[in-house]
Design goal:
single chain, alpha/beta, nine-stranded mixed beta sheet, six-stranded parallel beta sheet
């Protein structure tokens, strides 16, 4: 049975919005129906590219009957107001992270979705990433024993952001934890199979007075976790590593949108059981003392993996729009839980 593509109206046609539009244009499940941006020239440019109407205000876009899903790519401080307006207008919402700046705002979005009986999801690309999925499956399968510790070291390309970018303005971004950290709080909750809470946090500022490094300790059930984000590198030197310590091995994911997963300290008996859980190109390396390291690599590269993750998130929402019984992969509860952790990290006494 042929299913009519779901119409998307994208709001916020900046660099990331452009990336999303190109990703959505490849999908048979959806069609780009409209583009909205406060910059009329920019909105017109992309609207012309996709042969759709251009709007400069949200009210006009949500009045367009061809728009069924609003893809909200605006700065975080606008998510609550714009998201509630879209949901109350009967539009489904694909919200860029974070869900909102505050928990009351997040709750207002949940209430609006319930009130209008619309579907709401967050663009948590980690939940669509095959390697994060493999990590969650490895923990659930128990083949490496109990998960004891999770550690994230995220050295991000903050040097590429101008000093006047909204990211550095906490009133607009919420700060590093809320704008960025929610991705990883959520991914670790998925892997751990448990909700988390923050136990300690600290932050550092650079010479310009910008908060550019943050660090926190957390627990997910009885699993210890450590998070570090530093917006102190360039695009050429940025690096992200997530490391999961199990009783009988270690799992490492490399890059902030992972394209490589490694399992260390593996016995020959474990190789046969573990490799079927891994996507991409898989090979085994002997490391001595009868132990091995398994490597899984997504050969398409980071940009293609990132695009695919965005598409899978939108595909999931489009299916839920056409089939109300379909459970969303990323729910408003996931968005609220990770936002709650981010707010906790932001509120705790800092250095």
């Amino acid at each position: 049975m042929n299913v009519e593509p779901v119409g998307i109206g994208l709001v916020g046609a900046g660099a990331y919005g452009e990336f999303c539009l190109a990703a959505f244009a490849e999908m048979p499940e959806v069609r780009i129906a409209a583009v909205c941006d406060t910059d009329a020239a920019r909105a017109g440019h992309f609207a012309s590219r996709y042969n759709v109407p251009a709007y400069t205000d949200l009210a006009a876009l949500i009045a367009d009957p061809t728009v069924e899903i609003v893809a909200l790519n605006t700065p975080p401080f606008l998510h609550a107001e714009q998201g509630v307006a879209a949901l109350d207008a009967g539009k489904h919402l694909f919200c860029e992270k974070p869900l909102a700046l505050t928990l009351p705002e997040g709750e207002a979005l949940r209430a609006a979705a319930e009130r209008s009986q619309t579907r709401l999801t967050i663009d948590y690309v980690m939940r669509q990433n095959p390697l994060w999925r493999a990590a969650a499956e490895l923990r659930a399968a128990g083949m490496l024993g109990k998960l004891l510790h999770m550690e994230l070291a995220n050295h991000a390309a903050g040097l590429s952001l101008p000093a006047n970018h909204w990211f550095w303005d906490k009133a607009k971004s919420g700060g590093i934890w809320i704008e960025h950290g929610v991705h990883f709080f959520d991914a670790c909750a998925w892997v751990a199979g448990a909700d988390g809470r923050i136990t300690a946090a600290q932050a550092f500022t650079n010479a310009a007075g910008q908060e550019d490094r943050v660090e926190a300790l957390a627990v997910y059930g009885d699993i210890a976790a450590h998070f570090y984000h530093g917006f102190t590198h360039s695009g050429a030197t940025e690096q992200t590593t997530a490391r999961l310590t199990f009783e009988r091995g270690y799992v490492t994911l490399r890059e902030w949108v992972p394209t490589v997963l490694e399992i260390a300290a593996v016995t020959p008996e474990q190789i046969t059981a573990l490799t079927p859980l891994l996507p991409g190109d898989v090979y085994v390396e002997a490391v001595g003392a009868g132990l091995h390291r398994i490597h899984a690599r997504l050969p398409q590269g980071k940009s293609a993996v990132y695009r695919s993750c965005i598409q899978d998130g939108m595909r999931d929402l489009a299916r839920a729009v056409r089939d109300p019984a379909h459970p969303l992969t990323v729910t408003v509860e996931h968005g609220l839980h990770s936002l709650r952790m981010a707010v906790e990290a932001e509120r705790l006494p800092h250095r």
